[in-house]
Amino acid sequence: MNFGLNDDQQMLRDSFARFLDSESSMSRVRQALEGEGFDPALWSGLADLGTFAMRVPEEAGGLAMGTLDAALVLEEAGRTLALGPIAEAILAARLIALTTGEGIDAVIAGEQVATLAFRDVAEEPVQWLNGGDRADLVIARHGDDLVMVAPADAHRRVDETLAANGIAEVDLGRAPRTVLASGPEALALFAAALEEWKLLTACQLLGLAREAVRLAAAYACERKAFGVPIGTFQAISHPLANFITEIEGGRAFAWKAVHMVATGEPQAGAAISLALWWAAKVASTSAIQSLRTFGGYGLTTEYDIHLYNLRAKATALVWGDSARLLEEAGRRLYAGEPAVLPDVGPVSIDFDLGEDARALAAEVDRFFEETLTPELKAHAHYSWDGHHPAVHKKLAEAGLLFPELSPAQGGRGASPYARYAAADVWEEHGWSGHARGTTMMAAAMIDKFGTDELKAEVLTRILAGEAVCSLGYSEPGSGSDVFSAQTKATPDGNGWRIDGTKMFTSGANLADYVLMLCRTNPDVAKHKGLTMFIVPLMADGIEVQPVHTFQDERTNITFYDNVKVPDTWRIGPVDGGVRAMSAALELEHGGGGFAKAHGLLIRMAEDLAREIRFAGKPLIEDPAAQVRLARARAHHMVGEMLVLRSLWSVEEKQDLPACGPMAKVFTSEKFLEDGSDLLDLTAPLSLSKRDGAAAHVNTAYRHAHGTTIYAGTSEIHRSMIAERALGLPRTRA
């Protein structure tokens, strides 16, 4: 798997970034907007860099670069608000080169501005065009012909527009035109170019959105209110954290869509539509929030943020209402509507998990197929209640319980990719990984910080699949603020006495040990007086009481009264629990999010939509239902990209700030959002808990609530994202 750019692409992006920082500076953009809404020097400079030759074949005098390369340029163009129909001109040049070649040199050289018309001129002769205020050439469809139209000023109606970015209404029916090609192949070339335009425009919008959020974050660090930077207020920082997450996921999704086209994946056409829909939505909403960060100053023309706000809204709307893209994606996903896909050229990025991952997933699949009897399948549950000691031990004996561990520890030395692929199989078989996950965290802490005695007595049993561990972090009065723990550990001879209460100790009724955070020094700052222990749950003085949730899960409240543990069962130094705890939380935050559960929810909702009748036909044939399912698909694809991006960063040791929290908060929040919407869509059948898809949609809605709380609430993760990815000040004491 590879989310990175090769050296040539990095050089390409850096070159265009430097050029556009200079030639599309905000002063230059403002100067052009105050004049004719176009910068001829910028256009000429772009031509000199080979922009308009990027997608032209070498034999026609071009650079024969791929769609992804052009997307990198468009992202920088969006970041700097570069004026002109750049994406359209790139694709117009390609269409000319692939047909007659007439006038290609002038377009590549930037001597003539070329753009695209999105709709059949024979049906809609008057159209809004990007660059329509000055385009010398327009490539369009006219019935069965691919034509080049040469509009004059008399054919244009140039109004003042929302973003003053050169869009105009052009009467293409009255302008002279030349036929470039005719017939199905010509129309397919044009249709493919429009699909590529969606990909390039998506990246342009995401580049714009990223810069808008960056400007807002920088302002939030400088502007003070009530004596502190406004970025310390969660009402400011958390929305920006949401948007930088959605932007990062959207960019990876757009790249994924390019890759899907290159590899011929069946849903590539739908992915293109969804990528632009998502980018348009995120760009507009993030620019609005970014402007609001500036308060009243954002409304003034002195600050650049208003330019981003207006351009974010206007860029995709030249195509029309972006909600139509969801309708288009719905038809492509559920009504068999075909899409003509572009030849995207070479694609260096790769989202394949690899042969090792497939091999491990296949082995895990065989294990479950051979092991899970009807009785065990009936026992399965998505919570701790699905834990089965015999299956747990068999997994350990097969080296499949903790495959990420070394062979010497009973694992496979599996990469994050392989572990992710294996976890997908657990999800498909409906087998709970709760005990595995928390026990792995405890094992990692013991291995890193534990004493030799603790490793011999506990870690050995864990690795053999003979013991499982729960987590004792939360308390009745602290919730996600784990460093406020009041459960006391006081010295007692050669060991410790533990007294207190832990809340949400899930699995404590089934586990052998609990990984516990205790206060060992009440006289220092709360995060400095904590120590971690492994506590055997069979010790005297421990009481476990059930707490049932509306998710059909059991968690527990656990009471500790004069519980004795030896000092050798301490993890790390006394009062040094924050270091160990932070390592544990990093493991939990990097756990992959909830994209798998989200994807399964969508598949079950699709099954219900095929079963439910609406207006005399299956619900899935209803366009409104298709839109909602397509929207959920977009959310899932973005979330999956965030998860894979996080895995890649771990495997390749890439510094991607807050990528784990981004994956967790996005996938859990969208799981809940779509869990609610798809329950609505498939009601009233989804209200039933009858076996099959209905029960799954019903359960997923309830389960999704907890995912926004597990491993720290979404609010905690948003603070982490704001601080790490945007450089905002701390929002937590």
Automatic annotation (TrEMBL):
InterPro entries cross-referenced by the UniProt entry: Acyl-CoA_Oxase/DH_mid-dom (IPR006091), Acyl-CoA_Oxase/DH_mid-dom_sf (IPR046373), AcylCo_DH-like_C (IPR036250), AcylCo_DH/oxidase_C (IPR009075), AcylCoA_DH/ox_N (IPR013786), AcylCoA_DH/ox_N_sf (IPR037069), AcylCoA_DH/oxidase_NM_dom_sf (IPR009100)
A Pfam family per the record: Acyl-CoA_dh_N
SUPFAM superfamilies xref list: Acyl-CoA dehydrogenase C-terminal domain-like (SSF47203), Acyl-CoA dehydrogenase NM domain-like (SSF56645)
Domain Acyl-CoA dehydrogenase/oxidase N-terminal: 7-82, 355-466
Every Acyl-CoA oxidase/dehydrogenase middle domain range: 471-549
A GO MF term: flavin adenine dinucleotide binding
UniProt entry keywords in alphabetical sequence: FAD, Flavoprotein
Cofactor(s) needed by this chain: FAD
Top-rank taxon: Bacteria
Domain called Acyl-CoA dehydrogenase/oxidase C-terminal: residue spans: 192-333, 603-725
Alphabetized Gene3D superfamilies for the sequence: Acyl-CoA dehydrogenase/oxidase, N-terminal domain, Butyryl-CoA Dehydrogenase, subunit A, domain 2, Butyryl-CoA Dehydrogenase, subunit A, domain 3
Family in the record: Belongs to the acyl-CoA dehydrogenase family.
Protein's recorded name: Alkylation response protein AidB-like acyl-CoA dehydrogenase
Source organism (scientific name): Novosphingobium chloroacetimidivorans
Organism taxonomic ancestry: Bacteria, Pseudomonadati, Pseudomonadota, Alphaproteobacteria, Sphingomonadales
